[in-house]
Prior knowledge:
The chain is α+β, with helices and mostly antiparallel strands. The protein has helices spanning about 10, 30-35, 40-55, 60-65, 75-80, 90-95, 100-115, 120-125, 130-140, 155-160, 165-170, 190-200, 215-230, 240-260, 295-305, 365-370, and strands spanning about 170-180, 180-185, 205-210, 260-265, 270-280, 280-290, 315-325, 325-335, 340-345.
Amino acid sequence: MVEVRLELEKEYVPEGVEVKHPPPEKRNEIARLLLKAGIFTEDQLHYARRVHAKLTSPRSLLSVLEELQYVTREQVRETLQKSPVSVPLGALLVELGYLSEADLAMVLASRKENRKAKFGRLILDLRLIDENDLLRVLSYQLGFPFIDPDVAEIDPKLLQRSPFSIYRENVYLPLHRQDGKVVIAFADPLNSENVASAKKIFGYSIVMAISRERSILETLRRLETSDKKGEKRPGHVEPNDNVIVQTVNSILVEAHKEGASDIHIEPMRDKLQVRFRRDGVLVPCMDLPLDMVPGISSRIKIMAGADIAERRRHQDGRMFFAENDIEMDLRVSIYATIHGEKIVMRLLGAQSELLKINELGMAPRIQQRFM
Protein backbone atom coordinates (compact mmCIF):
# COMPACT_ATOMS: atom_id res chain seq x y z
CA MET A 1 0.00 0.00 0.00
CA VAL A 2 1.42 3.36 -1.01
CA GLU A 3 1.71 5.86 1.79
CA VAL A 4 0.67 9.48 1.70
CA ARG A 5 2.98 11.31 4.10
CA LEU A 6 1.06 14.59 4.35
CA GLU A 7 -0.20 15.03 7.90
CA LEU A 8 -3.09 17.29 6.97
CA GLU A 9 -5.25 16.34 9.91
CA LYS A 10 -2.99 18.42 12.16
CA GLU A 11 -4.03 21.51 10.23
CA TYR A 12 -7.68 20.77 9.58
CA VAL A 13 -8.68 18.24 12.23
CA PRO A 14 -7.03 18.89 15.63
CA GLU A 15 -6.88 15.99 18.04
CA GLY A 16 -9.95 15.74 20.28
CA VAL A 17 -12.06 18.07 18.16
CA GLU A 18 -15.19 16.66 16.58
CA VAL A 19 -15.20 16.97 12.80
CA LYS A 20 -17.99 19.29 11.65
CA HIS A 21 -18.24 19.95 7.96
CA PRO A 22 -20.07 23.01 6.62
CA PRO A 23 -23.66 22.55 5.44
CA PRO A 24 -24.12 21.70 1.73
CA GLU A 25 -24.99 25.25 0.68
CA LYS A 26 -21.66 26.48 2.06
CA ARG A 27 -19.48 23.75 0.58
CA ASN A 28 -19.42 25.12 -2.96
CA GLU A 29 -16.22 27.08 -2.58
CA ILE A 30 -15.02 26.04 -6.04
CA ALA A 31 -18.24 27.27 -7.66
CA ARG A 32 -17.75 30.64 -5.97
CA LEU A 33 -14.16 30.82 -7.22
CA LEU A 34 -15.29 30.02 -10.76
CA LEU A 35 -18.02 32.65 -10.54
CA LYS A 36 -15.52 35.23 -9.31
CA ALA A 37 -13.20 34.31 -12.22
CA GLY A 38 -16.03 35.00 -14.67
CA ILE A 39 -16.28 31.43 -15.96
CA PHE A 40 -20.09 31.55 -15.73
CA THR A 41 -22.76 34.05 -14.67
CA GLU A 42 -24.92 34.38 -11.56
CA ASP A 43 -27.97 33.32 -13.58
CA GLN A 44 -26.19 30.16 -14.80
CA LEU A 45 -25.11 29.31 -11.25
CA HIS A 46 -28.67 29.87 -9.99
CA TYR A 47 -30.07 27.57 -12.70
CA ALA A 48 -27.44 24.90 -11.91
CA ARG A 49 -28.44 25.01 -8.24
CA ARG A 50 -32.10 24.53 -9.18
CA VAL A 51 -31.19 21.50 -11.29
CA HIS A 52 -28.96 20.15 -8.51
CA ALA A 53 -31.75 20.48 -5.93
CA LYS A 54 -34.11 18.36 -8.05
CA LEU A 55 -31.67 15.46 -8.54
CA THR A 56 -32.59 12.21 -6.80
CA SER A 57 -29.09 10.72 -7.06
CA PRO A 58 -26.17 12.23 -5.12
CA ARG A 59 -24.21 14.56 -7.38
CA SER A 60 -21.93 17.52 -6.76
CA LEU A 61 -22.91 20.99 -7.93
CA LEU A 62 -19.67 21.15 -9.89
CA SER A 63 -20.60 18.04 -11.89
CA VAL A 64 -23.96 19.66 -12.75
CA LEU A 65 -22.15 22.80 -13.93
CA GLU A 66 -19.90 20.64 -16.10
CA GLU A 67 -22.83 18.69 -17.54
CA LEU A 68 -24.61 21.95 -18.40
CA GLN A 69 -21.37 22.93 -20.20
CA TYR A 70 -21.00 26.08 -18.10
CA VAL A 71 -17.47 25.03 -17.13
CA THR A 72 -14.85 22.51 -18.23
CA ARG A 73 -12.54 20.37 -16.12
CA GLU A 74 -9.57 22.28 -17.53
CA GLN A 75 -11.07 25.61 -16.39
CA VAL A 76 -11.59 24.14 -12.91
CA ARG A 77 -7.98 22.97 -12.77
CA GLU A 78 -6.59 26.34 -13.91
CA THR A 79 -8.78 28.30 -11.49
CA LEU A 80 -7.79 26.12 -8.52
CA GLN A 81 -4.11 26.43 -9.36
CA LYS A 82 -4.38 30.21 -9.36
CA SER A 83 -6.49 30.35 -6.18
CA PRO A 84 -5.81 27.50 -3.71
CA VAL A 85 -8.89 26.76 -1.62
CA SER A 86 -8.99 26.73 2.18
CA VAL A 87 -11.77 24.20 2.74
CA PRO A 88 -11.20 20.83 4.48
CA LEU A 89 -9.80 18.09 2.26
CA GLY A 90 -12.88 15.87 2.67
CA ALA A 91 -15.31 18.62 1.62
CA LEU A 92 -13.05 19.47 -1.33
CA LEU A 93 -13.01 15.86 -2.51
CA VAL A 94 -16.82 15.72 -2.32
CA GLU A 95 -17.20 18.97 -4.24
CA LEU A 96 -14.86 17.78 -6.99
CA GLY A 97 -16.81 14.54 -7.26
CA TYR A 98 -14.06 12.17 -6.07
CA LEU A 99 -16.01 11.17 -2.94
CA SER A 100 -19.71 10.93 -2.18
CA GLU A 101 -21.28 12.18 1.04
CA ALA A 102 -21.64 8.53 2.11
CA ASP A 103 -17.93 7.89 1.41
CA LEU A 104 -16.94 10.91 3.48
CA ALA A 105 -19.17 9.81 6.35
CA MET A 106 -17.55 6.35 6.28
CA VAL A 107 -14.03 7.84 6.43
CA LEU A 108 -14.95 10.16 9.30
CA ALA A 109 -16.49 7.23 11.20
CA SER A 110 -13.22 5.31 10.74
CA ARG A 111 -11.26 8.28 12.10
CA LYS A 112 -13.40 8.35 15.23
CA GLU A 113 -12.34 4.76 15.91
CA ASN A 114 -8.67 5.58 15.29
CA ARG A 115 -7.81 9.20 16.05
CA LYS A 116 -4.19 8.73 14.98
CA ALA A 117 -5.14 7.62 11.46
CA LYS A 118 -4.38 10.12 8.71
CA PHE A 119 -7.31 11.16 6.54
CA GLY A 120 -5.38 10.73 3.29
CA ARG A 121 -4.14 7.29 4.26
CA LEU A 122 -7.66 6.19 5.26
CA ILE A 123 -9.25 7.03 1.90
CA LEU A 124 -6.42 5.22 0.13
CA ASP A 125 -6.76 2.15 2.36
CA LEU A 126 -10.50 2.12 1.72
CA ARG A 127 -9.77 2.38 -2.05
CA LEU A 128 -12.09 5.35 -2.41
CA ILE A 129 -9.66 7.36 -4.55
CA ASP A 130 -6.51 6.85 -6.59
CA GLU A 131 -3.33 8.33 -5.13
CA ASN A 132 -2.66 10.48 -8.20
CA ASP A 133 -6.13 12.01 -7.90
CA LEU A 134 -5.60 12.62 -4.19
CA LEU A 135 -2.30 14.39 -4.81
CA ARG A 136 -3.87 16.55 -7.51
CA VAL A 137 -6.57 17.68 -5.08
CA LEU A 138 -3.95 18.34 -2.40
CA SER A 139 -2.04 20.46 -4.90
CA TYR A 140 -5.23 22.50 -5.47
CA GLN A 141 -5.75 22.85 -1.72
CA LEU A 142 -2.18 23.72 -0.77
CA GLY A 143 -1.15 25.66 -3.86
CA PHE A 144 1.73 23.33 -4.81
CA PRO A 145 1.96 22.08 -8.42
CA PHE A 146 1.64 18.30 -8.87
CA ILE A 147 4.62 16.88 -10.81
CA ASP A 148 5.42 13.33 -11.89
CA PRO A 149 9.23 12.88 -11.64
CA ASP A 150 9.14 10.11 -14.27
CA VAL A 151 8.26 12.59 -17.01
CA ALA A 152 9.73 15.79 -15.56
CA GLU A 153 12.83 17.56 -16.84
CA ILE A 154 15.77 16.83 -14.49
CA ASP A 155 18.98 18.88 -14.44
CA PRO A 156 21.90 16.54 -13.49
CA LYS A 157 23.98 19.51 -12.28
CA LEU A 158 21.43 20.20 -9.52
CA LEU A 159 21.61 16.57 -8.35
CA GLN A 160 25.38 16.89 -7.84
CA ARG A 161 24.94 19.50 -5.11
CA SER A 162 24.25 16.90 -2.43
CA PRO A 163 24.63 13.14 -1.83
CA PHE A 164 21.67 11.00 -2.89
CA SER A 165 21.33 9.84 0.71
CA ILE A 166 20.13 13.34 1.70
CA TYR A 167 17.47 13.30 -1.02
CA ARG A 168 16.30 9.83 0.06
CA GLU A 169 16.26 10.66 3.75
CA ASN A 170 14.11 13.78 3.22
CA VAL A 171 12.24 12.34 0.22
CA TYR A 172 12.61 15.18 -2.25
CA LEU A 173 14.11 15.55 -5.71
CA PRO A 174 15.57 18.69 -7.36
CA LEU A 175 14.26 18.88 -10.92
CA HIS A 176 15.24 21.98 -12.90
CA ARG A 177 15.34 25.77 -12.86
CA GLN A 178 12.28 27.86 -13.57
CA ASP A 179 12.51 31.66 -13.74
CA GLY A 180 15.77 31.55 -11.80
CA LYS A 181 14.34 29.31 -9.05
CA VAL A 182 14.96 25.60 -8.42
CA VAL A 183 11.87 23.40 -8.74
CA ILE A 184 11.90 20.66 -6.09
CA ALA A 185 9.42 17.78 -5.83
CA PHE A 186 8.54 16.85 -2.22
CA ALA A 187 6.64 13.83 -0.96
CA ASP A 188 5.59 16.01 2.00
CA PRO A 189 5.92 19.76 1.33
CA LEU A 190 4.40 20.47 4.76
CA ASN A 191 7.32 18.81 6.57
CA SER A 192 9.43 21.72 7.80
CA GLU A 193 12.57 19.58 8.28
CA ASN A 194 12.47 18.35 4.67
CA VAL A 195 11.93 21.87 3.34
CA ALA A 196 14.72 23.25 5.54
CA SER A 197 17.09 20.59 4.20
CA ALA A 198 16.31 21.61 0.61
CA LYS A 199 16.68 25.33 1.33
CA LYS A 200 20.04 24.72 3.00
CA ILE A 201 21.33 23.17 -0.23
CA PHE A 202 19.51 25.18 -2.92
CA GLY A 203 18.80 28.46 -1.13
CA TYR A 204 15.49 30.05 -0.30
CA SER A 205 14.54 30.70 -3.94
CA ILE A 206 12.82 27.37 -4.58
CA VAL A 207 9.53 26.32 -6.12
CA MET A 208 7.90 23.58 -4.05
CA ALA A 209 5.97 20.84 -5.86
CA ILE A 210 4.20 17.72 -4.65
CA SER A 211 4.89 14.19 -5.98
CA ARG A 212 4.29 10.58 -5.06
CA GLU A 213 6.82 9.28 -2.55
CA ARG A 214 7.39 6.07 -4.48
CA SER A 215 7.96 7.95 -7.75
CA ILE A 216 10.58 10.16 -6.10
CA LEU A 217 12.42 7.21 -4.58
CA GLU A 218 12.29 5.17 -7.79
CA THR A 219 13.63 8.10 -9.81
CA LEU A 220 16.43 8.65 -7.27
CA ARG A 221 17.34 4.95 -7.43
CA ARG A 222 17.45 5.01 -11.23
CA LEU A 223 19.53 8.20 -11.36
CA GLU A 224 21.92 6.98 -8.67
CA THR A 225 22.45 3.68 -10.48
CA SER A 226 23.23 5.49 -13.73
CA ASP A 227 25.58 7.84 -11.88
CA LYS A 228 27.51 4.99 -10.24
CA LYS A 229 28.05 3.21 -13.56
CA GLY A 230 30.05 6.21 -14.70
CA GLU A 231 30.74 5.53 -18.36
CA LYS A 232 27.97 5.08 -20.86
CA ARG A 233 27.30 1.87 -22.72
CA PRO A 234 28.56 1.65 -26.31
CA GLY A 235 25.99 3.19 -28.62
CA HIS A 236 24.09 4.65 -25.66
CA VAL A 237 22.22 7.90 -26.35
CA GLU A 238 20.78 10.13 -23.66
CA PRO A 239 17.00 9.67 -23.74
CA ASN A 240 16.02 13.30 -24.39
CA ASP A 241 12.75 14.31 -26.04
CA ASN A 242 14.09 14.08 -29.60
CA VAL A 243 15.52 10.60 -29.03
CA ILE A 244 12.23 9.38 -27.49
CA VAL A 245 10.13 10.75 -30.38
CA GLN A 246 12.46 9.26 -33.00
CA THR A 247 12.51 5.89 -31.21
CA VAL A 248 8.71 5.65 -31.00
CA ASN A 249 8.36 6.70 -34.66
CA SER A 250 10.94 4.13 -35.78
CA ILE A 251 9.10 1.35 -33.89
CA LEU A 252 5.82 2.25 -35.60
CA VAL A 253 7.39 2.54 -39.06
CA GLU A 254 9.24 -0.78 -38.65
CA ALA A 255 6.03 -2.51 -37.54
CA HIS A 256 4.28 -1.23 -40.65
CA LYS A 257 7.09 -2.43 -42.92
CA GLU A 258 7.12 -5.86 -41.25
CA GLY A 259 3.36 -6.24 -41.66
CA ALA A 260 2.88 -6.71 -37.91
CA SER A 261 -0.60 -6.96 -36.41
CA ASP A 262 0.50 -5.99 -32.87
CA ILE A 263 3.38 -4.21 -31.14
CA HIS A 264 4.39 -5.30 -27.63
CA ILE A 265 6.62 -2.92 -25.62
CA GLU A 266 7.47 -4.53 -22.28
CA PRO A 267 10.02 -3.56 -19.59
CA MET A 268 12.02 -6.52 -18.30
CA ARG A 269 14.44 -6.74 -15.38
CA ASP A 270 17.41 -5.46 -17.42
CA LYS A 271 15.99 -4.08 -20.69
CA LEU A 272 12.98 -2.74 -22.56
CA GLN A 273 11.86 -5.43 -25.01
CA VAL A 274 10.01 -4.62 -28.24
CA ARG A 275 8.28 -7.44 -30.12
CA PHE A 276 6.03 -7.63 -33.18
CA ARG A 277 3.25 -10.13 -33.75
CA ARG A 278 3.41 -11.55 -37.27
CA ASP A 279 1.17 -14.41 -38.43
CA GLY A 280 0.11 -14.97 -34.83
CA VAL A 281 3.68 -15.31 -33.49
CA LEU A 282 5.52 -12.75 -31.32
CA VAL A 283 8.92 -12.03 -32.85
CA PRO A 284 11.66 -10.01 -31.04
CA CYS A 285 12.36 -6.73 -32.80
CA MET A 286 14.73 -4.69 -30.64
CA ASP A 287 15.95 -4.18 -27.07
CA LEU A 288 16.24 -0.70 -25.57
CA PRO A 289 17.84 0.58 -22.32
CA LEU A 290 15.64 0.76 -19.23
CA ASP A 291 16.16 4.50 -18.83
CA MET A 292 13.98 5.00 -21.92
CA VAL A 293 10.96 3.35 -20.29
CA PRO A 294 9.36 6.49 -18.73
CA GLY A 295 9.90 8.60 -21.86
CA ILE A 296 8.53 6.04 -24.32
CA SER A 297 5.56 5.28 -22.08
CA SER A 298 4.70 8.97 -21.72
CA ARG A 299 5.14 9.65 -25.44
CA ILE A 300 2.74 6.86 -26.43
CA LYS A 301 0.24 7.93 -23.74
CA ILE A 302 0.21 11.47 -25.11
CA MET A 303 -0.29 10.21 -28.66
CA ALA A 304 -3.11 7.90 -27.50
CA GLY A 305 -4.86 10.48 -25.31
CA ALA A 306 -4.18 8.56 -22.08
CA ASP A 307 -3.32 9.98 -18.64
CA ILE A 308 0.49 10.23 -18.35
CA ALA A 309 0.29 10.53 -14.55
CA GLU A 310 -1.65 7.28 -14.12
CA ARG A 311 0.77 4.36 -13.71
CA ARG A 312 -1.14 1.86 -11.56
CA ARG A 313 -4.26 1.11 -13.56
CA HIS A 314 -5.06 -0.26 -16.98
CA GLN A 315 -5.69 2.37 -19.66
CA ASP A 316 -6.96 2.24 -23.23
CA GLY A 317 -6.53 4.74 -26.03
CA ARG A 318 -6.38 5.19 -29.76
CA MET A 319 -4.00 7.10 -31.99
CA PHE A 320 -3.45 7.90 -35.64
CA PHE A 321 0.16 7.93 -36.90
CA ALA A 322 1.24 9.36 -40.25
CA GLU A 323 4.75 9.69 -41.64
CA ASN A 324 5.63 10.17 -45.32
CA ASP A 325 3.38 7.70 -47.18
CA ILE A 326 2.64 5.60 -44.06
CA GLU A 327 -0.71 5.98 -42.30
CA MET A 328 -1.59 3.86 -39.28
CA ASP A 329 -4.61 3.63 -36.99
CA LEU A 330 -3.70 2.00 -33.66
CA ARG A 331 -5.60 0.84 -30.60
CA VAL A 332 -3.45 1.16 -27.47
CA SER A 333 -3.66 -0.76 -24.17
CA ILE A 334 -1.40 0.01 -21.20
CA TYR A 335 -0.93 -2.42 -18.31
CA ALA A 336 0.95 -2.18 -15.00
CA THR A 337 3.52 -4.97 -14.55
CA ILE A 338 6.14 -5.81 -11.94
CA HIS A 339 8.89 -4.00 -13.88
CA GLY A 340 6.84 -1.06 -15.18
CA GLU A 341 4.16 -0.37 -17.77
CA LYS A 342 3.65 -2.74 -20.68
CA ILE A 343 2.15 -1.28 -23.85
CA VAL A 344 0.30 -3.28 -26.51
CA MET A 345 -0.68 -1.60 -29.78
CA ARG A 346 -3.04 -3.21 -32.29
CA LEU A 347 -2.58 -2.01 -35.86
CA LEU A 348 -6.05 -1.45 -37.27
CA GLY A 349 -4.93 -0.40 -40.76
CA ALA A 350 -5.81 2.71 -42.74
CA GLN A 351 -9.10 3.34 -44.53
CA SER A 352 -7.34 3.04 -47.90
CA GLU A 353 -6.63 -0.63 -47.17
CA LEU A 354 -10.32 -1.58 -46.80
CA LEU A 355 -11.69 -3.84 -49.50
CA LYS A 356 -14.32 -2.53 -51.87
CA ILE A 357 -17.79 -4.07 -51.67
CA ASN A 358 -17.40 -5.86 -54.99
CA GLU A 359 -14.21 -7.48 -53.66
CA LEU A 360 -15.85 -9.11 -50.64
CA GLY A 361 -16.95 -12.22 -52.57
CA MET A 362 -20.70 -11.80 -52.29
CA ALA A 363 -22.92 -13.47 -54.89
CA PRO A 364 -23.97 -10.99 -57.62
CA ARG A 365 -27.70 -11.08 -56.71
CA ILE A 366 -26.95 -10.57 -52.97
CA GLN A 367 -24.52 -7.76 -53.76
CA GLN A 368 -27.10 -6.09 -56.00
CA ARG A 369 -29.77 -6.27 -53.27
CA PHE A 370 -27.27 -5.00 -50.69
CA MET A 371 -26.34 -2.03 -52.86
